Write a sequence for this structure.
């Protein structure tokens, strides 16, 4: 299948290109390399050294025996998107080309406005270019479980049937996102749902949980094929950040009580799920939502898993909660459905500890790179608009 | 009270400035005069001749004995908004400064992207400027009943308590908007709800029905104080368009069956309701939603009311439905709540026919201006992205 990946230089994009190529798909991709710049803006870098795209592309060709059709370009430039689609004629479009960080979007008005306009305009341009060039193609859009927030009822996959004052309807599930970034994804979801309804486009909107992992098997041992691994306050996600902390002997720092529940999944499961979506497209006009995660854990539970595995490997990891810079519930009900992908054949990685062991071993190699930037790990971007480093809370033995 | 009106040169903005001034409020306002340009882009003009702002401001001062603090500027320019708030220190901010047309947003990718970025960025800038300068102020935001679409259940005012799989929560009511413009208002609503939650701002989000009318009493007989009255396919709304058609002997043209139900209200009721919201602000951190309309009618019913009043005035109005350029349900359940404003003292205009009589008499005076632009009345912007004039359907006697 011809698969176009927007944001192919990123954490998920670069891994997916390889996962799909290994399964025989033909890959094209675009990137403006903004992720590299944003992480620099945070005074950080990827723990894994990231090569220039030309070198990545050469290594890709050596390993998979075929080329990626790559172009540097901006999704906010409609002509760029339309012309690329005309040339490549994608059958599936995987859209990772967005600003993906909640804290980054909360820095100030400029970062807020940039996040929402960048994400919304890129998605609108893709929708119009699909309508114009390839209306039969399938848009696989990366959303986030964070679109739903933490309601006090079960979270279905996008839609639910409800009875209200004696009448019934199937409606979009209400969203209660927790940052300007998360809201930008809600705005995207709404726009995509509408484009499917009026133009008959087809899309899978992926409400993905928090991804962790350093590798997928398809990368082999070629360091040039490694994907990026961020650990700074903005672009590092919870489990990845805990692993980076563990290898440099920094305390693992859940936010507040750490009882926040989230769906999590290893990078390899993310690749498996996205591929299932791509290879099983929806029908014309269908807008479907997949909740994509392996299992729900509290943030504290995952810190404890990282601690356990790290200590087995000879580290001396401690957990020290810090002030929560976000405004979020730390105690809440959380029970999201995730049947759709399982029904299509998703086999979850049940051995999370083995995955963490691989990660910690991979990161050992890049310990100096993490150590050199360790000041960027603790957050200072706060949801009230100020910037002040979170302090350690009195260490607690939360469960 | 010091009231800032964004979009003060528009249909609602110019009327509200006068309504509030007559009640003793102090008014400031901003406008970039984009509405004048958009209507020109549609090859149209306001039926009522609109004066340059300097002349409007002079007439305002003569009538109300006080000045409007007016600045020409762009809400997408954060510095402009923050500096204006610093100077005026608003207690209420009424936000009309958005692109308000569904068909205009559906013309092509450029109009779609413009609509969403213009509306979203202006609102985000206002929220940040409020947070920075006047966090106690009250944001009265103009949304639209069109945010909800036409679900098969009752429509509450913004939020509803539901039971789902045996658990209960109060959640935002799901939105199912029908154009890029309507979705931009949903995106705004979501952003505003979030700002109130994290920063403690207070806001009333007005889900307004379709407004009709040429005047409010406060304008007196000074033609310089008249508000604009659009009748083109993009900026003219249903009842206003029917009245413009009636005075030039053009058939009244509901879209399709005309059984679409909507909430409607006269301009004077809109002013009354907005003033009630302004004078009864929510508490700190409260985000409340008012469904603002006088009554629900089908589009066809209102065409019939216009026909009846027009014929009493000696016109010979006929109703001739045209192809519906939109993608919308023409037969549907519709039962939105509208208790909040009534509870705060809203007295609806029950005599819609008297209101239509005033409108038709006012428009008689500007018959030549409507006649000169009558080619712009029938729509050609279609929801499928093409442009083709809607044709008359076989005349029917729908009820």
């Amino acid at each position: 299948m011809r698969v176009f990946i927007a944001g192919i230089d990123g954490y998920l994009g670069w891994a997916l290109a390889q996962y799909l190529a290994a399964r025989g798909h033909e890959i094209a991709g675009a990137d403006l390399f903004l992720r590299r710049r944003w992480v620099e803006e945070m005074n950080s870098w990827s723990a894994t050294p990231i090569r220039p795209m030309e070198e990545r592309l050469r290594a890709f060709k050596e390993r998979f025996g075929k080329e990626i059709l790559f172009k540097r370009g901006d999704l906010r430039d409609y002509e760029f998107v339309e012309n690329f689609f005309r040339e490549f004629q994608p059958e599936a479009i995987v859209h990772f080309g967005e600003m993906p960080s909640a804290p980054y979007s909360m820095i100030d008005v400029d970062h807020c406005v940039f996040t929402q306009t960048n994400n919304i305009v890129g998605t609108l341009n893709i929708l119009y270019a699909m309508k114009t060039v390839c209306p039969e193609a399938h848009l696989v859009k990366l959303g986030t479980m964070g679109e739903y927030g933490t309601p006090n009822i079960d979270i279905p996959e996008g839609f639910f049937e409800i009875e209200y004052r004696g009448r019934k309807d199937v409606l979009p599930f209400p969203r209660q996102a927790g940052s300007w970034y998360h809201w930008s994804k809600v705005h995207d979801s709404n726009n995509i749902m509408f484009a499917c309804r009026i133009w008959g486009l087809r899309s899978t909107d992926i409400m993905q949980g928090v991804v962790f992992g350093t590798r997928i098997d398809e990368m082999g041992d070629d360091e040039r094929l490694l994907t990026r691994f961020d650990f700074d306050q903005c672009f590092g996600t919870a489990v990845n950040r805990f692993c980076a902390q563990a290898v440099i002997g920094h305390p693992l720092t859940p936010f507040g009580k750490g009882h926040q529940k989230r769906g999590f999944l290893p990078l390899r499961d993310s690749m498996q799920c996205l591929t299932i979506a791509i290879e099983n497209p929806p029908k014309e006009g269908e807008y479907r939502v997949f909740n994509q995660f392996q299992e729900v854990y509290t943030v504290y539970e995952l810190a404890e898993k990282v601690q356990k595995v790290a200590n087995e490997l000879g580290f001396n990891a401690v957990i020290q909660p810090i002030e929560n810079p976000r405004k979020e519930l730390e105690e809440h009900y959380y029970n999201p459905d995730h049947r759709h992908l399982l029904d299509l054949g998703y086999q979850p990685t049940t051995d999370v500890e083995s995955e963490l062991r691989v990660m910690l071993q991979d990161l050992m190699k890049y310990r100096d790179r993490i150590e050199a930037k360790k000041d960027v790990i603790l957050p200072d971007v706060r949801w009230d608009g100020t910037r002040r480093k979170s302090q350690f809370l009195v260490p607690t033995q939360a469960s």
User: Anything to note?
Assistant: The mean pLDDT of chain A is 97. Chain A touches chain B through 49 residues (CB under 8 Å). The radius of gyration of chain A is 20 Å.
